[in-house]
Amino acid sequence: MSPVSSTAGSFVRSGKVRDLYAIGEDRLLLVASDRLSAFDVVLPTEIPDKGRVLTGLSRFWFSRTESIVPNHLLAAAPEDLPAEMAWDQDASRELRGRIMLCRRADVLPIEVIVRGYITGSGWKDYQRTGAVCGIALPAGLKESERLPEPLFTPSTKAEVGHDENIDLAEAARLVGADMALRVRDVAIELGVPGAVDRGHAALTKQLDQAVPTAERGPDLGHGLGVSPLLRPRPATAGILAHPSVATA
Prior knowledge:
Oligomer: single chain
CATH topology of the largest domain: D-amino Acid Aminotransferase, Chain A, domain 1
Low-confidence stretches: 194-222, 233-248
Strand content: 15-25%
Helix content: 10-25%
Radius of gyration: 18 Å
CATH class of the largest domain: Alpha Beta
Largest sheet: 5 strands, antiparallel
């Protein structure tokens, strides 16, 4: 168990990578471990400082995208956390760079993916049907070819097993038509090269192939970005969720 467990309130759960702790009624502490997962399996060998890298990526993109979608991040350095969460020097050293104190948000039950390239499960769908998530595509595309424009291609958020691609209509059935359209629009804006920081190299060609993830939530009708955000990943491009519990 992390050194945070004795002082940070109630342990909620461990995800594949992050451990979650409840801080009062309206906050969560996310602690990014060095665990490595692939295809929904946590591997036995950790990668040193992987959790710090993931947390650093989220913090960087939260700061760059807050003009597009607000986010749940409240604090990230041990010295900026509430007094009741004070740790000794050894614990603070271990947790520095791994932690994010966040507002709670109710995560939408879908994975919101923006694809800039035809690859992964999208490529399999295209080979079988000529479409991805109900969106017809031109014939003759090659695997990993860049698409004419970013596509909103949601999937289920499976508790067990693998996620399944769905179309916009099914996403609307699961989260409501208005929310599905708002999430689509924000996800695509995050996924368009240059949208995050116009005039700067915020989205390079490499990051254009990444995952603009943005867990999104309903806080009085407003979207809320939660971790992770714009993490590099080859095949998918976004998670969006509903404000009030962040995911690990």
